């Protein structure tokens, strides 16, 4: 990685105090020889003074926010420790009814589809079943799936990133029929006014991710970072992470810079890497890329940087990460990731339903976070993994099903 260039002081700002008298070429040979020696010595003095001047300038212009850098390293040290406990801690001290039927409406992409089996495994501990309904993610298909679940006697519907406006009628129909509605990763506020029982991985709960990524960038660069945050503004849930990343960069490094690049939905899986490379070419000082969604934005990006001759200059950090992103991490093409804890999302949603049906208070908690690097990544990253290795055992203990 090449650090950003810093201006040096001009040679003219350092003036030698020693004067050199140039002698005439018609003087005696001994005088001409003495003159040549004096001139040579003066030239050396000038070079030494110029060098000293340059050294002084380097020290001044490359100054680092030491306090901020120290704080960034402390945050990274904390974030890099793998969590060992789940975020909910109160045992359910009343009987949890069995025989419940849950419908999980998949949003149509791989990230949603992989949640079905995890939800089913968690629910099985409580004697519940999960019916997984695949959709293409369009509002019409999702609305139809929710209505079908209500008609078929489901006790609860789980839908990721539920938009309370797009599905207001279906949520109201579910409430009227006594069907609980649970979501994750949504901007909706849980409560009677929204008709949503529970929402986890909310915008505010995810906010620390941005701070972790900023601390990593500042720490890894030694306080000399020029970063760009690559966002997908169509996913409004991501806005908070972008805000905390920008705030974190300013907090940890007063001299670092942060730019923003928005990638449209139509570019995902297509020309997103080319757009990022184009931005880097027009902003040559940028040496760090922070991805709001590593899965969607990071696929093919390391290869694109290499092809553009930027792989040795620009480092990548990001939120989330699929199997390819982790392969790139292990190969050194990605500096660090804060992975999505799909297991936490799913077990927390099942836990909320268990508390509701057992008649005990819900715990509005979010997932844990972990800053993963090449030397700390789990051995098997080909599929989703729980950040807390014994997530299943810890939840079943709370449920009295160990």
Automatic annotation (TrEMBL):
Give the protein name, as stated in the record. Answer: Sugar ABC transporter substrate-binding protein
A Gene Ontology cellular component where this protein is annotated is: outer membrane-bounded periplasmic space
Pfam families per UniProt: Peripla_BP_4 (PF13407)
Protein's cellular compartments? Cell envelope
Question: Which residues belong to any copy of the Periplasmic binding protein domain?
Answer: 120-359
Principal localization reads other
- In terms of domain of life, where is this protein from? Bacteria
* GO terms assigned for molecular function: carbohydrate binding
């Amino acid at each position: 990685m090449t650090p950003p260039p810093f201006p040096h002081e001009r040679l003219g700002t350092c003036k030698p105090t020693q004067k050199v008298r140039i002698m005439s070429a018609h003087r005696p040979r001994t005088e001409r020889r003495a003159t040549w020696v004096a001139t040579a010595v003066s030239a050396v003095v000038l070079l030494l003074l110029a060098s000293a001047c340059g050294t002084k300038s380097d020290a001044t212009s490359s100054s680092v926010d030491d306090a901020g850098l120290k704080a960034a390293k402390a945050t990274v040290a904390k974030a890099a420790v793998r969590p060992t406990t789940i975020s909910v801690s109160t045992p359910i001290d009343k009987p949890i009814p069995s025989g419940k039927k849950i419908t999980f409406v998949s949003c149509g992409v791989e990230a949603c589809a992989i949640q079905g089996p995890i939800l089913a495994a968690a629910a099985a501990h409580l004697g519940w079943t999960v019916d997984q309904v695949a959709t293409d993610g369009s509002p019409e298909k999702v609305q139809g799936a929710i209505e079908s679940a209500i008609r078929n006697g489901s006790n609860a519907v789980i839908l990721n990133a539920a938009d309370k406006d797009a599905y207001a009628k279906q949520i109201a129909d579910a409430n009227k029929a006594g069907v609980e509605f649970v979501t994750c990763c949504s901007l909706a506020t849980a409560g009677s006014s929204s008709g949503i029982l529970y929402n986890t991985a909310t915008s505010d709960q995810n906010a620390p991710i941005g701070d972790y990524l900023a601390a990593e960038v500042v720490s890894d660069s030694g306080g000399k970072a020029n970063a760009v945050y690559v966002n997908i503004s169509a996913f409004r849930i991501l806005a908070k992470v972008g805000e905390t990343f920008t705030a974190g960069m300013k907090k940890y490094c007063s001299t670092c810079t942060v730019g923003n690049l928005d990638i449209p939905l139509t570019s995902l899986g297509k020309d997103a890497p080319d757009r990022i490379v184009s931005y880097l070419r027009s902003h040559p000082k940028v040496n760090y890329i922070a991805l709001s969604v590593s899965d969607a934005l990071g696929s093919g990006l390391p290869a694109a940087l290499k092809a553009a001759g930027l792989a040795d200059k620009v480092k990548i950090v990001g939120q989330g990460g699929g199997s390819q992103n982790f392969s790139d991490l292990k190969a050194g093409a990605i500096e660090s990731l804060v992975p999505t804890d799909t297991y936490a999302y799913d077990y927390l949603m099942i836990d909320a339903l268990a508390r509701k049906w057992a008649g005990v208070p819900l715990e509005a908690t979010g997932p844990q976070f972990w800053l993963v690097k090449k030397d700390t990544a789990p051995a098997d990253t080909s599929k989703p993994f729980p950040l807390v290795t014994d997530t299943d055992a810890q939840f079943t203990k709370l449920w009295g099903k160990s």
